[in-house]
Amino acid sequence: MTTINDIARIARVSKATVSKVINNYPGVKEETRRHVLNVIKEYNYWPSSVARSLSTNKSFTIGIFEPVRINNFFFREVFEGIESVLGEEGYDILYLTNKLWENSWLKFSFKEKCINRGVDGVIMMGFGRVNLSEFDGLLNSNIPTVFVDLDLVGSNTSYVTSNNVEGAEMAIRYLAGLGHKKIAMIKGPAGFKLANDRFTGYQKTIHELNLEYNPDWVFSGEYSMETGYDAVNKIIKMRNRPTAIFAEDMIAIGAIRALRENGFSVPEDFSVMGFDNIELGLHYGLTTINQDRNGLGEAASRLLLDIINKKSFSPVILPVELIERDTCRSI
Amino acid sequence: MTTINDIARIARVSKATVSKVINNYPGVKEETRRHVLNVIKEYNYWPSSVARSLSTNKSFTIGIFEPVRINNFFFREVFEGIESVLGEEGYDILYLTNKLWENSWLKFSFKEKCINRGVDGVIMMGFGRVNLSEFDGLLNSNIPTVFVDLDLVGSNTSYVTSNNVEGAEMAIRYLAGLGHKKIAMIKGPAGFKLANDRFTGYQKTIHELNLEYNPDWVFSGEYSMETGYDAVNKIIKMRNRPTAIFAEDMIAIGAIRALRENGFSVPEDFSVMGFDNIELGLHYGLTTINQDRNGLGEAASRLLLDIINKKSFSPVILPVELIERDTCRSI
DNA sequence: TTTTAAAGGAAAACCGGTTTACAAGCTGGG
DNA sequence: CCCAGCTTGTAAACCGGTTTTCCTTTAAAA
């Protein structure tokens, strides 16, 4: 491998001079600069970012932790947003794995892993509100950190999220506008801010609009079709049935399938309203709330860069929008 | 940040001794070892992998290039396979972005980026057979490299892929077994080994079984529903129509939708056979060929580790299997 | 021509580790 | 009691960059 020493020797200058040329620093005669640049090009030299990181304490890498593997496509799209913004700024993205932790002679947590790898900042996604103490190290450190969909803040920590409360409110208002007064909700996994916020929006709006609130109409479960099936199986046995069902897309699709399999029609017998706008929803004509997953990733990266540059630490909450398709009807 | 010097000073030993303790090297009295370990734990010290990389020339990072963003879910699942294997071995994964390249004062290619970042190896995925010269640098370097779905080999380069030829053969034999003699194929994007191999298997088997080969029944396009729509629009206008359609899942689903929209029934009027087994296929009851995407990632990582350790360089070709659902019928 | 300031470049220290060479201390055999 | 040989630990060099300090040129001003 060609190093800065090779270049210095060949160009008959000191390595300090080569360094100045590489970094476009002043204090080098134009003639010398050109000469050094020629040698660099001729030998196809590229400085080692490892060595550079060591001396500057800046690595141009951002770490990502993403342990939970629910909901593949979701994080994938967030990731694309992250990558596009950070890439433009010259950062690469280090996917931090934690498989080895258990075997290690000294267990280490998020913070230690970040320090060990020398990342300039870290994005945390896919974490629920369980075991929050896991994050203590990070929050108390000065490592710039951005959480996606988890509202944690600290000296150098902030978060981004979609406006899930408002999204749920939009959904309920829309259903109410169609004449629905009995609306069920199938919540996502308990402990996740996402799911909690959506439920909050649901409750709040039910109250504001004076709709019927019935605890029996509130279900909860994993983010899967199963959960929709289970809830529908209970709903159809009820004497006092809701007329509309509000649930996250994957669950909503499970519900639609279950309803159809039981001889009900959507939206004739039940209206179904989703949340997320996953691609699959298109194939079911699912009316839903769209959240901008790419935008979430972009916002996360930009916020992280702002934290790194000490420019801004304010959480970012992204707007959502209602997408009208064919699974809700007015009654 | 706590460094090895701090630990050495506090423990009243030399940094060499601390280093030996960290790496479990011999030549340290048990008593000293324990003492140093205690100090390390007390001060929550973790060695900097940046500094370590610099001196050992080994970074425990694997790079990934994945420029094309077709087919999200596919790479996501491959990635999971990669991560699970490499994570176990203590590697982290560096997503290499190339957004900054154009602006850079010296353009650099895959090889230079790898050298610059000091990765121990690199996995290339999502590349087609276009501009193969882009890879010259990598192939001629001694950087361990594994391609996914592109059959490039070099001194330290190999590849993994599913057995796409055989998969196509299975598909055609299955359709022929159901009595189909006129089978159309909608190919994926030209230039990709994946798509080429599948077409090869199709052609070969058509010949072997003495089925009708009609160039008009061969279509080609992007990996999208659109492509399926377009092909079907042509097929239904033909006088001599095929009775079965073979295409990659997303395209096949487009075809199914197009057929239905035009008043045809699947599988009554046309049998449709997919390839890939994407999740969406389930919702259409699509009969298809499954390829093990997780396994592809695992195989890629293991092969890469083998190349790094100079143990094996042989390409890996993974078997596929036929999944029977509801879109093909016997005639 | 001499004085002085500015510009250019080299030398050396540093970042946090690893590794090699060597010295000191201890043990046991003759 | 002395010396060989093993064990333990230290000092120093090194990895490939950056940055500070300082010396040497060169050009401008007096």
Provide an overview of this structure.
2 copies of one chain form a homodimer. The longest helix of chain A is centred in the first third of the chain and has 17 residues, at 72-88. Chain A is 43% helix and 15% strand. In chain A, α5 crosses α13 and α8 runs parallel beside α9 (193-208). Chain A starts with a helix and ends in an 8-residue tail after the last strand. By secondary structure, the first copy, chain A, is of the alpha/beta class. Chain A has helices at residues 4-11, 15-22, 30-42, 49-56, 72-88, 110-117, 136-140, 164-177, 193-208, 225-235, 249-261, 279-283, 293-308; strands at 61-65, 92-95, 121-125, 145-148, 157-162, 183-187, 218-220, 244-247, 271-273, 288-290, 316-318, 321-323. In chain A, the strands form 3 sheets. In chain A, strands 2-1-3-4-5-11 form a 6-stranded parallel sheet, covered by helices on one side. A 4-stranded parallel sheet of chain A has the order 7-6-8-9, sandwiched between helices. The structure holds a DNA duplex (30 and 30 nucleotides).
